[in-house]
Amino acid sequence: MSSGLFITFEGIDGSGKSTQAKMLVERLMADGLSVLHTREPGGSDGAEEIRQLLLTGDPDRWSAETEILLFTAARRDHLEKVIEPATERGDIVISDRFADSTRVYQGATRGDLRPMVDRLHEQMIGREPDLTFIVDMDPQKALSRGLARGSGEDRFEDFGLGFQETLRHGFLSLARDFQDRCVVIDGDRAAEQIAAEILAHVMDRL
Ligand code: ADP
Ligand code: TYD
């Protein structure tokens, strides 16, 4: 049985998830807690290799179904090798994205593939976070932030503004479906202000 706290950050590209995940990790570590900072797609050696296949190259490289399989394969490796061992040790695991991203990006944007995403999740992953922060942002602002990074991993960001708007609604609808673990955070504020709100929620759970 797992005993550590499993926290995830979700939201559209450029909403400030990574910034907030990092700030939370630093703050909890400064308090002397044992924290593991990870991300998806990736987070384990095998999953990082799959990340490269998923995020670079032609936007039409993979069919939606193949993409679901690749994200799920990466997640399974990440779960087995990194997340489960850490939570079993009692660590706090903070992941930049997890299964909610697949539900929204693959499940709600290209036809209705959500039932397939849900079946695969149930069979191959079967784990939900204890706490999920959905960082909500106006897609126009988020997109200009995200593209400014120039990381080369912008296959999904290349799909454009309409796509990001669909994603935003997908995340907000997910927050309503999983109210026990999801907290919607207004991402259009100073980073320090957002971090303080997030920390208060985490302290409540701890
Ligand atoms: P995500 O992980 O959601 O894609 P990032 O944390 O990488 O987003 O942030 C995207 C960009 O926006 C980065 O350049 C980051 O420095 C900047 N940023 C993050 N949070 C804020 C904020 N609250 N206000 C203004 N800019 C921000
Ligand atoms: P990420 O590195 O978090 O990008 P960003 O910092 O721009 O938010 O994630 C890379 C991309 O992968 C992002 O566009 C979302 C997408 N993604 C999916 O489509 N499905 C998934 O299951 C995951 C985890 C990510």
Tell me what you see in this structure.
The chain is α/β, with parallel strands linked by helices and 206 residues long. The chain has helices at residues 17-30, 45-55, 64-89, 99-106, 114-124, 139-147, 161-177, 191-205; strands spanning 6-11, 35-39, 92-96, 131-136, 182-186. The mean pLDDT is 92. Adenosine-5'-diphosphate binds at residues 11, 13-19, 145-146, 148-149, 190-191, 194.
Secondary-structure element series: EHEHHEHHEHHEH
Poorly predicted regions: none
Find the count of extended strands (DSSP E, 2+ residues).
5
**Small-molecule components bound:** adenosine-5'-diphosphate, thymidine-5'-diphosphate
- Portion in helices: 40-55%
Structural class: alpha/beta
Q: What oligomeric state best describes the polypeptide chains here?
A: single chain
Strand content: 5-15%
Report the end-to-end length measured between terminal Cα atoms: 18 Å
The strand line-up of the biggest sheet is 2-3-1-4-5
Shape: globular
Mean pLDDT: 92
Write the layout of secondary structure elements.
Layout: E1 6-11, H1 17-30, E2 35-39, H2 45-55, H3 64-89, E3 92-96, H4 99-106, H5 114-124, E4 131-136, H6 139-147, H7 161-177, E5 182-186, H8 191-205
Parallel strand pairs: 1-3, 1-4, 2-3, 4-5
Bound molecules: adenosine-5'-diphosphate (ADP) and thymidine-5'-diphosphate.
Adenosine-5'-diphosphate (ADP) is lined by residues 11, 13-19, 145-146, 148-149, 190-191, 194.
